[in-house]
Amino acid sequence: FVEQRTRKAHLGDPVMNERGKVIGQVTSCAVATDGYFTGQAVIDSKFTKKDSTIYIYQGSPQNISKAPAELTTGDQVILPSPAVILSRYMVFGRPK
After folding, report:
1. Is 81 helix (H, G, I), strand (E, B) or coil?
2. For residues 15 and 43, is the Cβ–Cβ distance under 8 A?
3. Residue 92: its pLDDT value, please?
4. CA–CA distance, 4 with 65 (Å, rounded to integer)
5. Are 47 and 26 spatial neighbours (Cβ–Cβ below 8 Å)?
6. CA 6, CA 19: separation in Å to the nearest integer?
7. How far apart are CA 87 and CA 80, in angstroms?
8. Residue-range domain boundaries for the chain
9. Is there a contact between 58 and 7 (Cβ–Cβ < 8 Å)?
10. Tens-binned pLDDT, residue by residue, of the chain (96 aa)
11. Could you tell me if 57 and 13 are in contact, meaning their C-beta atoms sit under 8 angstroms apart?
12. Which residues are within 8 A (CB) of 66 and not within 5 positions of it... i.e. 6 or more apart?
């Protein structure tokens, strides 16, 4: 994730591209030594370019109470959090 203050992703949470298309699912997530969440996901190979921004619904609800057209002023919705695709095998402690 690109933000430290975000919810943890869980197994099965949907991963989307910048257009909102579901491109995969989270398989794992943990806190890295720098305080950011890092994890793995199974993603369609067309969307795996390093440094690409993806979006993850962490702890996605099983059902959404209202359709977008039914939302009114004051309603709250869950937004996906941005994340970045890293190298498959990261090497810690080395410059990029």
Report:
1. strand
2. yes
3. 60
4. 28
5. no
6. 21
7. 22
8. 1-61+75-89
9. yes
10. 888 888 889 999 999 999 999 999 999 999 888 888 889 999 999 999 999 999 998 876 665 567 788 889 998 887 889 999 987 665 665 555
11. yes
12. 75
Task: Please give the full DSSP string across 26-83, using - where no structure is assigned.
Answer: EEEEEE-TTS-EEEEEEE-GGG--TT-EEEE-TT--SS-SS-GGG--TT-----PEEE
The pLDDT of residue 54 is 96
Task: Please give the single-letter amino acid code of residue 6.
Answer: T
- Closest by CA to 83, choosing from 53, 57, 46, 58, is 53
Q: Give yes or no for a contact between 58 and 12, defined as CB atoms under 8 angstroms apart.
A: no
The amino acid sitting at 31 is V
CATH class assigned to 1-61+75-89: mainly beta
